[in-house]
Design brief:
alpha+beta, globular
């Protein structure tokens, strides 16, 4: 299992994976960064794109920051990056 760096842009028009920026996967979410709503939206999007259960996705670092490290049980960082960007 590997960890994947992501950068989150909350309060976007749509929830989407918007490519890469500075080696991190850029994820835009429409949810505000209040009460964990943006983090929950990020985890839901990653689970959907990776084809795993929501419970398999965890933010391991950066819960209160735009730059985060996420881990998906059962997927390597390379496979997760590929699932998000393709």
């Amino acid at each position: 299992m590997g960890d994947l760096a992501i950068r989150v842009q909350p309060r976007a028009k749509r929830t989407e994976v918007a490519g890469e920026r500075g080696g991190a996967v850029l994820i835009r979410v429409s949810a505000p960064p209040v009460d964990g709503k943006a983090n929950e939206a990020v985890c839901r999007l990653i689970a959907e794109r990776a084809g795993v259960a929501r419970s398999a996705v965890r933010i391991v670092r950066g819960e209160g920051a735009r730059d985060k490290l996420v881990r998906v049980d059962g997927l390597s960082a390379d496979r997760l990056r590929s699932a998000l960007l393709n």
